[in-house]
Amino acid sequence: MTTPVSAPEALAPGTLRVTPVGGLGEVGRNMTVFEFDGKLLIVDCGVLFPEEHQPGVDLILPDFEAIRGRLDDIVGVVLTHGHEDHIGAVPYLLKRKGDIPLIGSQLTLALVEAKLKEHRIKPYTLTVKEGQREQVGPFDLEFVAVNHSIPDALAVGIRTPAGLVLATGDFKMDQLPLDGRLTDLRAFARLGEEGVDLFLVDSTNADVPGFTPLERAIGPVLDQVIGKAPRRVIVASFSSHVHRVQQVIDAAAAHGRRVAFLGRSMVRNMTIAEQLGYLHVPDGVLIDYKKAKDLPDDRIVYMSTGSQGEPMAVLSRMANLDHAIEPGEGDTVILASSLIPGNENAVYRVIDGLTKLGANVVHKANAKVHVSGHAAAGELLYCYNILKPKNVLPVHGEYRHLMANAKLAQDSGIPAENTILAENGTVIDLKDGVARVVGQLDLGFVYVDGSSVGEITDADLKDRRILGEEGFISVIVVVDAATGRIVTGPEIHARGVAEDDAVFDSVKPKIAQALTDAAQSGVRDQHALQQVVRRTIGRWVNQSLRRRPMIVPMVIEA
Prior knowledge:
There is one protein chain. The strands form five sheets. An eight-stranded mixed β-sheet has the order 7-6-5-3-2-1-19-20. Strands 8-9-10-11-12-18 form a six-stranded mixed β-sheet. Strands 14-15-13-16-17 form a five-stranded parallel β-sheet, with helices on both faces. It is globular and about 85 Å long. Helix content is about 30%, strand content about 25%. It is α/β, with parallel strands linked by helices. Its main location: cytoplasm. GO terms for molecular function: hydrolase activity.
């Protein structure tokens, strides 16, 4: 689905404008902008992790073009929870304007502040908790407890004279959560009685029937796997999945093993979680990983990052024998996380690498070592029936997830015309219970590549893919500036092409002839001559070698 770009009409008085900037048609980059009475409220500001067709990219940010020039109008950024796909882009927003207030729960803000400290930014924050209401500019905010795969997640109700909006953030309805903190369906019902005019709802598991299994169902499986493991155990998970880490710690302690955290983000996040009381560690269980090597192999569990096959994360480096800990025969590796769409090949490469080293790899395909943090179809139907919203905007998911969520809304009795299938940049106006699409912004990907932000383009990534897949050919020719006659060359060098450079001997006369013909036609422009060279060798390589490499012609005037 691609909506034609169209400028939205002027915002009418008393109307709330809602613009998803990221998180629609993708799993990540979650960010939505709300505008009322000249002021902006942002809900979430996350990153998307690159896929294989985006080589060299570190992170992908939401396109802030939608709010460029409006930074002074932002009254706050509500962060629903502490996962990277909801908080990861906050440093890049605050680099543009450092005093934008951040609003969130205790753990969420602690994780954000630790991230911002690395960027040397000290933010303005407002800590909130479930049941709390805050007036932020023209927005009356109410925070509702929701259950997710990280503690302290919040949904947010946004009241303006235009109506009541409820944004769930990421959530599920685990009825026996490890921390006892349920998704507050009583608050949902109360808001439903008041009348929800627009419901922004998590779509990630909308195409999964039934109910998401309980997090605590993983505990016995981890206990069994760790209890039977003959040597070292290495568990990989998201570095913010406090509940999962808690269950690993509990299983390790039950079997007399100690736990060492691996990976900078894992150490940072779990230290914060323990200090704030979200992670409970028995005395004497944690050990620094440098000291852990002195323990017997059957007395240690390493808790690491890298469950998505990220090249520089701990688990990938272990699989490549590029880490101090080298997995081997008899070791057990547990991948206790989901597969983010697009990461499958990278994860299976890591699994294969670890298996070749002799490790027993346990993952969600062969054991119940992961449950999702997102509501499945049955849970979403419950929400629709409790809330009975006037309008629904499925968010947080790829297009098939959004479509499945819209179908659930319609199955529950919400009219199809009140179910908005949007994409990033779709502009929606809400007033008097009516939500309608009024425009489509042209938003793209903003790539973080090393120290550069937004400088890498899709064209650059295409060049990188060509270099990686097809190789590189340079052609150097020196011509007489006055006559255009060839003085030296053409000299051809190739990289990433299987054939020897001698294979190009047959094309050199063709290049020379093409340049001679161009000179006789009066062509003297250096760029035009380079294009002649590019076309000539490009045609020949395509026909003779069946390749389309990057060709860099250099025509030097003498």
